[in-house]
Write a structure and sequence with these properties.
Layout (H helix, E strand, L loop, with lengths): L1 H15 L11 H11 L4 E2 L12 E7 L5 H8 L8 E6 L10 E6 L5 H8 L5 E5 L9 E6 L2 E7 H6 L3 E2 L1 H6 L2 E3 L1
Parallel strand pairs: 2-3, 2-4, 4-5, 5-6, 7-9
Antiparallel strand pairs: 1-8, 6-7
């Protein structure tokens, strides 16, 4: 099982990193930016939370943005069920309606914990980072053994009427049932 997880994670990371990258070293931020838009492929939202018509999936960065242009580059390469993905940035959860994924890092507008509380039970896949504090979203990035890994809170996803694919759950370093 552990070997299968390693193979799946290695394959996912290899697919996320563009070939011929000009950088010899890939940073943790590069890997996280590559992961974020791909999470949408492994999540099922309730029908009311899905994009309408030809609208794109929306990945929101709420609070401090560690990614810069990396996130747009990663999102441009994604198509989920024939829909493109766009990135929106905001200081707080105000105006966050329409986000399917939210990277929540806190900032001037509100802390990570406050932003998560404001999002409440809305069907938004919340993603947090251990570098940004202790508050945790449904997916929580950590760096372990020099590699970017993540925990998944499946119970929180279910409370929001979202389903996470077993393929993504198998890649997590830990899953809260």
């Amino acid at each position: 099982m552990r070997r299968l997880k390693f193979i799946l994670l290695t394959g996912l990371v290899a697919a996320l990193v563009p070939l011929g990258s000009a950088r010899a070293q890939i940073s943790d931020t590069d890997v996280k930016a590559a992961f974020l838009p791909r999470f949408a492929r492994y999540v099922t939202w309730p029908p009311a939370a899905m994009p309408k018509g030809d609208d794109p999936y929306v990945l929101c960065v709420i609070g401090t943005d560690p990614f810069g242009g990396l996130l747009e580059q990663a999102a441009r390469s994604q198509s989920i069920d024939g829909r493109r993905m766009t990135v929106r940035r905001m200081d707080s959860t105000a105006g966050s309606n329409g986000c399917q994924i939210a990277f929540v890092s806190g900032g001037r507008g509100e802390s990570t914990g406050q932003a998560l509380a404001q999002l409440g039970n809305r069907p938004v896949l919340t993603v947090t980072d251990s570098n940004q504090g202790g508050a945790r979203g449904i997916i929580h990035f950590v760096v372990s053994g020099g590699r970017v890994r993540f925990y998944i809170d499946q119970a929180a996803a279910e409370r929001k009427k979202m389903a996470i694919s077993s393929r993504l759950l198998a890649l997590a370093v830990g899953v809260h049932q």
